[in-house]
Q: What sequence folds into this?
């Protein structure tokens, strides 16, 4: 396994600076964010360390040169929109860019692209599958033609009562993963244990059941706020908080034990979404150092 980080937390650094930081701190890899250039529509979105809309020989040479010079590998390209958004124009736009990310990846020597399945949050899971069937076979074919594995992250993307109860991502539970793989066997998982903690889903069992499907892993923790849970119940929101690895309720020993049992040998990338570490660039860098020190004991 290689330990790395998701580049979104270093949005104010250039790609050169991201690689330099990763090398100086002893990281083996980095997941590069590939959003379309422009304003972000939510936290941690809109970060563009690799602009796939402007790929040319010079950019390819530059990025491959950074990998060679620093020894830091690119674990995957990341773009996390909602490909099943209820607005057709939005769907078309984000799916089009996702395909650009997929097609660009092998030109940089990368064969993993991480994203969301998406969801129309106004509809039930069952009602979303027809739109999945309309959108995802073409995306999967694009990936297969490019020799790229797609890692679907399991974040529910549930942030407000407007998106209650399903959130904006379909692939969040073992049940939906099973259906997803039955429909498109070539899809994989970009697995993040933190999202299972607050759904009361057994993390280690999920790894043992689906570990062979993992193409990428995110390392993020989540802390359950039991006072808020008491006040609001599981039907409420904001009773769980993203934290750095080791500062929440993920059992990292059991998680890595299950990962090794499953034979996973890929990237484990720290994903920082802990508001307590967002105050400055130096604090965000420190969050990566701290997470690295904690996780190395298991790797």
A:
């Amino acid at each position: 396994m290689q330990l790395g980080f998701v580049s979104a937390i270093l949005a104010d650094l250039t790609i050169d600076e991201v690689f330099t930081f990763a090398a100086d701190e002893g990281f083996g890899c980095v997941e590069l964010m590939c959003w379309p250039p422009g304003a972000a529509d939510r936290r941690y979105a809109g970060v563009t360390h690799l602009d796939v809309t402007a790929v040319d020989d010079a950019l390819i040479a530059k990025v491959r040169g950074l990998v060679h010079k620093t020894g830091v590998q690119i674990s995957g390209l990341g773009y996390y929109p909602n490909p099943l958004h209820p607005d057709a124009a939005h769907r078309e736009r984000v799916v089009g860019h996702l395909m650009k990310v997929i097609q660009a990846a092998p030109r940089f020597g990368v064969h993993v692209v991480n994203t969301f399945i998406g969801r129309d949050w106004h509809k039930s899971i069952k009602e979303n599958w027809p739109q999945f069937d309309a959108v995802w076979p073409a995306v999967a074919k694009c990936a297969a033609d490019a020799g790229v594995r797609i890692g679907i992250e399991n974040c529910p993307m549930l942030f407000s009562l407007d998106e209650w109860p399903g959130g904006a991502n379909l692939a969040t539970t073992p049940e939906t993963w099973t259906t997803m793989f039955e429909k498109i066997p070539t899809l994989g998982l970009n697995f993040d244990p933190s999202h299972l903690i607050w759904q009361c889903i057994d993390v280690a069992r999920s790894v043992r059941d689906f570990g062979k499907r993992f193409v990428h892993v995110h390392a993020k923790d989540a802390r359950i706020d039991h006072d808020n849970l008491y006040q609001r119940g599981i039907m409420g929101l904001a009773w769980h908080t993203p934290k750095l690895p080791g500062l929440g309720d993920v059992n990292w020993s059991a998680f890595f034990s299950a990962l090794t049992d499953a034979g996973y040998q890929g990237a484990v990338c720290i994903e920082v979404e802990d508001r307590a570490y967002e105050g400055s660039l130096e604090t965000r860098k420190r969050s990566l150092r701290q997470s690295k020190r904690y996780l190395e004991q298991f790797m």
Notes: Residues 217 and 268 are 5 Å apart (CA to CA). The chain has a mean pLDDT of 95.
